[in-house]
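Table S2 (text version). Query chain:
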Amino acid sequence: MNVDLVQSRVDVAGLVADDLEAAIRRLKAQLDGEITVSGPTLAQSLTDLGLVDEYRLYVHPVVLGHGKPFFAGPRPPLRLVASDRIGADAIRLTYVPV
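Corresponding C-alpha cell output:
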C-alpha cells in the first residue's frame, strides 16, 4: 500500500494528510463499492484502526530477496473465504477479519 494513497473503484485518488481514520470512515460512508489500497504500511494502519473489511492477497511464483512484510505487526486473526486462480501463474486469496 502506498502510505498516503487511497483509491476507490471509480478511480478517484487523493492524499490523506492527517486523520487517516476520519478520512477512511468518510469514504466508506460516501462510496458504494470497494476502496482499494496497497502496501504494508497503510495496511497495518488500517488494520490497527479496525477499518479493513477484507484482505486480498495475490500469490505469484516469484522469489524476492527483500521487502516489507505485508503484516508488519502481529497478524490479525483472519478467515479464508475464497481462493481464485488468476491466469496461469497466480492465485488470489481472500480473507476477512474474525
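Notes on Table S2: The longest strand covers residues 78-86. Strands lie at 5-8, 13-15, 35-36, 55-59, 78-86, 90-97.
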